[in-house]
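Hi,

I'm pasting everything inline rather than attaching a file, because the server keeps stripping attachments. The sequence lines come first, and each chain or strand is labelled.
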Amino acid sequence: MSVDPVSMLSFVRFLFAFTIGSHILLVSTSIALILLISITEFLAIRKHDPVYDALGRKLSKVFVISFGVGTASGIVMAVELVGLFPSFMTLVASTGAMALLYAEVSAFFVEVLALVLYVYYWNSFRGRYSHWAVSLFILIGTLASAVFITMVNAWMNTPTGFDASAFISSGFKTVTGVEPFAAFLTASTAAQVFHVLVTTLFAGTMVIGAYFAYWFVRSGDAGEKAMYSRALKILGAMAIVTIVLSGISGSEEMGNLLVNQPLKYAALDGNAVPGTNLPDRFFGSVVNGTYVGGFSVPGMQTLLAKFETGVTILPGLSQFPANTWPPLFINTTFNIMTVGGLALGLFLLVFFISFVRKRRPYESRRLLYIWVPAAILAMLVYQLGWATDEMGRQPWIVYNVMTVAQAANTSGALLIPGIVIVLFYMAVIPTTFYFYSRIFQGSKKEAPG
Amino acid sequence: MNGIFEVNYAAFSVFAALLITEIMGAVGLLIAWPSRSKVLDYIVPVWEVTGTFGALWVVTGDFAYPALLVPVSSIFTPLLIVFLILWVARGASISFAEFITKRRWLDEEGLFKSYAASTIVLGLVVLVLLSALVGGQGVDLTTGSFSIISWATAGSVVFIIGALLVTVGLAPVFFDLSALRNLAIPLTGLGVVLSVLSYLLMSPGLLTPWMAAPVLLTLAVGALYTWRRTSRIVTNKAAFLAVLSVIIFSLQPLVYPKAVGQVLSIDAVTTTGTMADAFFSITVVGGLLLALMLSLYIVVATRGPNGPDL
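And the predicted assembly:
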């Protein structure tokens, strides 16, 4: 099929963004779910509480679906990457990024074997604490998988462990000077992994919480309400902890960008020119070398940067060739993230205060009504976070080494399969969430209590 | 000997053994739904492990042969897309089926049968892919394309029929279906004969003396099941899976040292240097973790009264 390569490049970008955006929905809920399951079972044992016990068993069944569809979707993405970005994947396969993917599969084995034991051999353990300990193996496996994948992304942002100049000068043909394990700890790995883990947990926590909030408000059954209330109690605590950590790690991540990806930093903060004592700018845009519109908080950007890194002279777009600038609207997506994150923080602050004052916020209809739109905002902020990170690296797929255009397969033959994949995901994701609910509401095998 | 190839092929052998046993069960679900419990006791906990070994095979393959990554994916794009859709459909339908309660048309039976159909078709897709990798039929390495019409030669078709007959012949062994005991040897034997014939048709060079090992092992499994005294050995699921993995592992002369119709030298495309060292290091660490988890699994699973809680 003959399709304009420029249009195909846009399609390839859209296709992968759509797929990973859909996949992230599954991943974030999965990660939060397994932490919730582990805490729930621990409390069930400690408090001898049959409601927690029943909750844990139901959630473990939901996790099986989440795992089944999530892993299948992960494999789709892995194969899709090869088809859409062949030159990129050839580089990955020749460097330490591949070692990270192999390490991820090892983590995956820990997760899957522990999951099989946890769910299908629940009654074969001699003590409840031994069974609960297996949930920790699932949690470790799940988190380690997420960590290794995030490390690959960190490597794309700050590539290391091979001779980049020689690779570029060979026309992307020869990879030399390979140090595979250097990819495990690039300049941006620690900050990015920390930020991605806590924000993923936060977004997943909020989404699962929205489900329980909705059903708590809607249900008239005291038994059901008791179960939803317990789930919300744990999820409320998880959300409060992870929003605080998201703020701290977000600040770390900005410091990391300032040092390692100054162009991305300048675009995110709308710095047309470098300078000192720069303001934090919101909802305007850079036009002809000047930031116009929106509003700003004087001196705030420099203050935060100094606090995070000690750096006082901040980078500006004018220091870099215009053809290497990312799309400047990432300033807006970044602002939505920041303001959205603050709004979520405020909501959870109210939740926390109510909790401290023993007002049982997890049973407050008013707060639970707010939780549902807050969860939508949390997922939006989370997705925008990824979008901002990826668009902020444009035009590069591997920073300062290979552009997306150089990496992409722009063959028209991808169009029809690509549309099939989009349609497939449009069916799979809502169906999966529908089944989460169906299985939670009506598991065939209820807890013995 | 190419250690990296051996690791990648070992991962494939376990994956293929698990997938074959799932296909055996899937056929049972489709044609004998009322006696499903024997099949589900096995499939329900295992399908997730099959997927993980599949991922291990793919990732170790990407790691082992970086230069093949792009050519293989572009040659087999249509097959891979069908594979991926079936893969998600399979995972989704079985995980939904495990815990679903009946509502209108959607119930456990429909979802398990959807899983079974997806798995069987998936198995056929994998067989098409493997026959192309072995014999090279339909594959044009110069243009980087695959033609299903050119693939459909006598060698490829007999390869698939042979593999299916072996699968059907061994199914009564794996699920201990004593009523079908007498079918094990005839079907397995015919499958082995057709498989050998397919290798001859694809490329006579594929038939080396070493190929006697998988042939004899396969026939031995069928024969051991025929006699009641020895049937207990092969109906043990772990033992059967181990033997099946060894049989598949011993089929490696079909693709090593040369694959795709004995044109592509595996050694020439295998990663070397520091990447090879990293491959082995991670294999050792990952292997230890896998061994640890499998030991835990065996301890817990053998302690359970009646297998998994379903």
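The CA atoms of residues 209 and 385 of chain A lie 21 Å apart.

If the labels don't parse on your end, tell me and I'll reformat.
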